[in-house]
Amino acid sequence: MKLYFHGHDYKYAAEQMLLTLFQDQRPEYPAGRPQEGENHLILSLSLGNQWATASAALTWRGQSCRKTRRCPLPRSGDKVARDRAFQQILKLAFYEAGTALLGYEPPWGALTGMRPVKIPTKAMLAGATPAQAERVLKDTYHVSPLRRALAMDCAKASLAASASLQPKEVSLYVGIPFCPTRCAYCSFVSADVGRSLKLIDPFLEALSQEIAATGRVLEEAGLKVRTIYFGGGTPTTLTAPQLDRVMGELSDRMDLSGCTEYTVEAGRPDTITREKLAVLAKRGCGRVSVNPQTMEDHVLAAMGRAHRSADILEAFRLVRESGIPCVNMDLIAGLPADSVDGFRASLDRVLELAPENITVHTLALKKGSRLMEEGSAIPSGGDVAAMLDYAWAALRSAGQAPYYLYRQKYMSGSFENVGWCLPGTESLYNICMMEELHTILSLGGGGMTKLVDPAAGRIVRIANPKYPKEYLERIDAVCAEKAQAVRFYQSEQEG
Question: For the whole model, what pTM was predicted?
Answer without folding.
Answer: 0.92
